[in-house]
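Hey, I'm writing a tutorial for new members on how sequence and structure tokens pair up, and I'd like a real worked example in the thread rather than a made-up one. If someone can provide the structure for the chain below, I'll link this post from the tutorial.
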Amino acid sequence: MGVRAAFFLVSWAVFAQSLPDGPDKELVEAVCTACHDSARIAAKQGTKADWQAKILEMLQECPDVTQAERNRIAEYLAQNFPRRVNVNKASAKEIQTVLEISAQEAQAVVRYRETKGAFLTVDDLKKAPGIDGAKIEAMKARVEF
């Protein structure tokens, strides 16, 4: 395959990428893809607060998009393009923010990591004393090692 053909296939794959199915996909497509292609949206990651701030910035001059719609867009984006955290490298504050856990739980993650070594799996992470395993399980898509 020639360089041009490879470039075309890669370009087409990026262009053809669509947003994940789910509630409010159509709303996100209608509002966000007016200015951004879906590949650009998919390349971003954020917490719900990150997405809310980005939506406020992007839609500040769009009074026809209601606050309820903005909230639905933020929820869709946070669910499908979550910010991730490397629990073996991140600070307690970053772990707290991304995994939406308490400061005490995040500190427990860091202490456990410092004494026991790097986490290899989500199950390892759940072993940290003082951690709510159900919270970690619910946020496992945001965890990197």
